[in-house]
Design brief:
disordered N terminus; alpha+beta; 207 residues; two-stranded antiparallel ribbon; five-stranded mixed beta sheet
Length: 207
């Protein structure tokens, strides 16, 4: 089962003086109030790992591809991964900004060998998304968009089950929006600059 993952008191600072992106959450059913385990959050087999898949510290980011603060956090995470080869990064797609965000998450998860490039390109995008815009972004990094969309119907139940798991975990953590980070089993309900990421990773390694 793995050990339960509990949230510390909310730290209300925001990355680079930014504001979190908020989404209203429906009341939780009783079964969704149980804190998920570290393994459930960080080692979902349906989510490809970025960075070093065998890294000794896993960072999981609850993210929406239309969240501007998520994009800032991703820049900080890329800086961290460039200097620390022991980081395993898991993108926890939580599309709180509606169907366009959900479509982007589905398409990124349908990108196969181009998944890392797809995530990077979607995070670098500074414009609002649409299905057409998502197609253009993913096509620019080598994704066969026509093939990915043609096969999406067959993959969608599996992908939507993953998105549902992410949503349930976010609800259990009482997240109000993206981004949120889980680092070595500790939950941070905010973005973090690279200096604080380094400290959190060091604390995770220290046990």
């Amino acid at each position: 089962m793995g050990r339960p993952l509990f949230a510390p008191p909310v730290d209300r600072r925001f990355l680079l003086k930014g504001a979190a992106s908020f989404a209203a959450l429906a009341p939780l059913p009783a079964w969704a109030r149980i804190a998920p385990t570290v393994n459930e959050v960080a080692f979902d087999p349906a989510i490809p790992a970025l960075g070093n898949p065998k890294g000794d510290v896993t960072i999981a980011e609850f993210v929406d591809y239309q969240c501007p603060i998520c994009k800032l956090v991703f820049i900080e995470l890329k800086t961290l991964m460039a200097e620390d080869q022991g980081i395993r990064l898991v993108m926890k797609d939580w599309p709180i900004f509606g169907e366009v965000s959900r479509d982007a998450a589905r398409m990124a998860l349908s990108s196969g060998e181009h998944y890392a490039a797809a995530v990077d390109a979607l995070m670098a995008n500074q414009r609002g998304l649409s299905e057409h815009r998502t197609n253009d972004i993913l096509g620019s990094v080598g994704v066969d968009v026509d093939q990915a969309r043609a096969g999406l119907a067959a993959r969608q139940p599996r992908i939507d089950a993953l998105l549902s798991r992410n949503d349930t975990q976010a609800a259990a953590f009482k997240l109000r929006g993206t981004p949120a980070l889980v680092i070595g089993g500790k939950l941070f309900k905010r973005g973090m600059p690279v200096a604080e990421l380094r400290d959190a990773v060091a604390a995770a390694r220290a046990g």
